[in-house]
Amino acid sequence: MEEKLGTMQKALAINLDDRKYGTLVEIGAGQEVSRFFFQAGGAAGTIAKTMSAYDMTVSDSIYGEEESGRYVCRSRVEKMLDREFPLLVDRVSEVRSKTSQYFAFANTVAAKGYKSKKDCHGWLGVKLQLYPGAEPSTIILHVRMLDNSNQQQQEALGILGINLIYGGFYKFDNPELLLKELQDDLKGRMEIDYANFSGPYFEEIDNKYIALCLVKSQLAPAAMISSEGDVVLPSEALYKKNLLVARGAFKPVTIVNVDMEKCAKASFMKEKGVNAKNTVYLAEISMADYMNDGEVNIKDYLDRVELLTDLGYNVLISSYMRYFTIRAYLNKISKKKLGIVLSVPNIIDIFNEQFYEGMEGGILESFGKLFASGTRLYVYPRVDINTGEMVTSETLKVPQHLKHLYLYLLDNRYIVPLSDPDPNVMGIHSQKVLQEIQYGDGEWKEHVPQTSYEKIVKKKLFGYDSM
Question: What's the predicted TM-score (pTM) here?
Answer without folding.
Answer: 0.93
